[in-house]
C-alpha cells in the first residue's frame, strides 16, 4: 500500500426528512446565500423546505447555476456575496451547484486579480474559503463529501478541475427521497459516474490494498445490482435510492482512493468532450472508459483479471479472453442503463478526435493515467477506438 493522509471533515446527515436538520447544522447567526441551479429545486418543493428549516436566519437565493457550471455565472454570485455580506453558503442541487459553490466560496476569499487562476493552478493557490454546506438532490459526483470541483470558462471553452483542503462542505444533507423527481437519464448518469469514479481508483495496478479493493468491488456490485432497477421500477423504491446515494458518495470521498494508485484519464478526456460538445459528464465517461481499458489492457492486466472475476464472475477462458469479456460486460452495463458508449452514438466522428487531442495538449493533459503513459498519441488511439 502507498503512504497516505486521510482526513474528511464533512458531516453527513443521511435519511428521509433530514432537511429539517438545517435548523441545527447552519450556524444560528449566519446570513445565508442559498445557491440553486435552474428550476428543479423550486419546482420539487426542496427550496421551500430549505427556507423553512432556516427559520429566522437572514437569507437570499442565487439561482441560475447551469449544468457544467460556468465561471461567468459563478462570478455573479461572488459579486452578490461581496455586496451583501453573506457569511454562509448553502448549495441545493446536484454536482454542478455544489461545485460552483465550492469555487464561489474560494473566489470570494481569493486575493489575486482574477479567480480563474484557481482553475489554472487546480486549486493549489486557494488560501481559504467561505464555509458552506449542501443539500444533495442528484447522487452522482460525490461532490457532497469531497473537496473537488469542475468549472467551465465559457469564453475560453475550457473545463478544468480544482481541489483544496479549504473546499470540503461543512455538512451535506443526503435525503434519498429528494431523488424521486429525477428523470431516468439523470439516474443513469448518476450510476455511471459513480461506477467510473470507483473504476478510476481501483482498476490500475495491485499494491496489496485488499481493504480498498473490496470496498471498491462492493460499490461496483451495488451499482450493478441497483442501477437497472432504478430504471424499471414503476414507483421509486426508497432503499434503492438510498443505496445509490451512499454508493455515489463513497465512490469519491477519498476512502477507496487512499493508499492506491489512481488513473483519472477517462475523466480528463471526458471533460474535453463536455467542453467541446456539451455531452453530459457521465456519458463522456461511458464513451471513453471501455476504449481506454482495452488500450491499457497490458498495464492494467492484473487488476482487469481481478475485476472480471470478482465483479462480473468471469472465471473461464484465457487471460486475454477474460479481460475482453470484462471490458464488454462494462460496455453492456452502460448501454443497459440507456447510455451510448461510442462517439457515433452522439453524432460525432473523426473531427472530434483531433479537436479533443488538441484541447488535452492545450491544457497540459499530456501524461495521463496511473503510469503517466497516456500521451496525446495514446489519447488519440483511445478516441479512435471509441468512434
Ligand atoms: O439545474 P436544475 O434545474 O437544478 O436541474 C438539474 C440539472 O438540469 C437536474 N436536477 C438535479 N437534481 C434534480 C434535478 N432534476 C429533478 N429532480 C432533482 N432532484 O439535473 C440536471 C443535472 O444536474 P448536475 O448538477 O449538472 O448533474 P451532476 O450531479 O451529474 O453534476 C455534473 C457536474 O459535476 C462535475 C461534472 O464535471 C459536471 O460539471 N463533477 C464533479 C465532481 C466532483 N466535484 O468531485 C466529480 C465528477 O467526476 C464530475 O466531474
Ligand atoms: Zn465523474
UniProtKB/TrEMBL annotation:
Q: Name one Pfam family in it.
A: ADH_Fe_C
* GO MF entry, a single one: methylglyoxal reductase (NADPH) (acetol producing) activity
- According to its UniProt record, the EC number is 1.1.-.-
Q: Can you name a GO cellular component term?
A: cytosol
Query: Where does the Fe-containing alcohol dehydrogenase-like C-terminal domain start and stop, copy by copy?
Result: 188-375
- Tell me the ranges covered by the Alcohol dehydrogenase iron-type/glycerol dehydrogenase GldA domain, including all copies: 9-176
Instruction: Identify the keywords attached in UniProt to this record, alphabetized.
Output: Oxidoreductase
Q: Which Gene3D superfamilies match?
A: 3.40.50.1970, Dehydroquinate synthase-like - alpha domain
Q: Which cofactor does it need?
A: Fe cation
Q: SUPFAM superfamilies annotated for this entry?
A: Dehydroquinate synthase-like
Keyword Oxidoreductase belongs to the record: yes
| InterPro entries membership | ADH_Fe/GldA, ADH_Fe_C, ADH_Fe_CS, BDH-like
Family, as annotated: Belongs to the iron-containing alcohol dehydrogenase family.
The record ties this protein, via PANTHER family, to: ALCOHOL DEHYDROGENASE YQHD
Descriptive protein name: NADP-dependent alcohol dehydrogenase
Please report the organism this UniProt entry assigns to the protein: Acidovorax delafieldii
Amino acid at each position: 500500500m502507498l503512504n497516505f493522509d486521510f482526513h474528511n471533515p464533512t458531516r453527513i446527515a443521511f435519511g428521509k426528512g433530514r432537511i429539517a436538520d438545517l435548523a441545527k447544522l447552519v450556524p444560528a447567526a449566519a446570513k445565508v446565500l442559498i445557491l440553486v441551479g435552474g428550476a428543479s429545486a423550486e419546482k420539487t418543493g426542496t427550496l421551500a423546505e430549505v427556507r423553512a428549516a432556516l427559520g429566522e436566519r437572514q437569507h437570499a437565493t442565487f439561482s441560475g447555476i447551469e449544468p457544467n457550471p460556468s465561471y461567468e455565472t459563478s462570478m455573479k454570485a461572488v459579486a452578490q456575496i461581496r455586496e451583501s455580506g453573506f457569511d454562509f453558503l448553502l448549495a441545493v442541487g446536484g454536482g454542478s451547484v455544489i461545485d460552483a459553490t465550492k469555487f464561489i466560496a474560494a473566489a470570494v476569499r481569493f486575493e489575486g486579480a482574477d479567480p480563474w487562476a484557481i482553475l489554472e493552478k487546480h486549486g493549489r493557490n486557494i488560501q481559504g474559503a467561505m464555509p458552506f454546506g449542501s443539500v444533495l438532490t442528484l447522487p452522482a459526483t460525490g461532490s457532497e463529501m469531497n473537496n473537488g470541483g469542475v468549472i467551465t470558462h465559457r469564453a475560453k471553452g475550457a473545463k478544468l478541475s480544482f481541489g483544496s483542503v479549504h473546499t470540503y462542505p461543512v455538512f451535506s444533507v443526503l435525503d434519498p427521497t429528494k431523488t424521486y423527481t429525477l428523470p431516468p437519464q439523470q439516474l443513469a448518469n448518476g450510476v455511471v459516474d459513480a461506477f467510473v469514479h470507483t473504476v478510476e481508483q481501483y482498476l490500475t495496478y495491485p499494491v496489496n490494498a485488499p481493504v480498498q479493493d473490496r470496498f471498491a468491488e462492493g460499490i461496483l456490485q451495488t451499482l450493478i445490482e441497483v442501477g437497472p432497477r432504478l430504471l424499471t421500477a414503476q414507483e421509486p423504491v426508497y432503499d434503492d435510492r438510498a443505496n445509490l446515494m451512499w454508493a455515489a458518495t463513497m465512490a469519491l470521498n477519498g476512502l477507496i482512493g487512499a493508499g492506491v494508485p489512481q488513473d483519472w484519464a477517462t475523466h480528463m478526456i471526458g471533460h474535453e468532450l463536455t467542453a467541446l460538445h456539451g455531452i453530459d459528464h457521465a456519458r463522456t465517461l461511458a464513451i471513453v472508459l471501455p476504449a481506454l481499458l482495452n488500450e491499457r489492457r497490458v498495464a492494467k492486466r492484473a487488476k482487469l483479471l481481478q475485476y472480471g472475476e470478482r465483479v462480473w464472475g468471469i472465471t473461464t477462458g484465457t487471460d486475454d479472453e477474460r479481460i475482453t469479456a470484462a471490458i464488454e460486460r462494462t460496455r453492456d452495463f452502460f448501454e443497459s442503463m440507456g447510455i451510448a458508449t461510442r462517439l457515433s452514438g452522439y453524432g460525432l466522428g473523426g473531427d472530434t478526435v483531433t479537436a479533443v487531442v488538441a484541447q488535452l495538449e492545450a491544457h497540459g493533459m499530456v501524461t495521463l493515467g496511473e503510469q503517466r503513459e497516456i500521451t496525446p498519441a495514446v489519447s488519440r488511439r483511445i478516441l479512435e477506438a471509441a468512434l
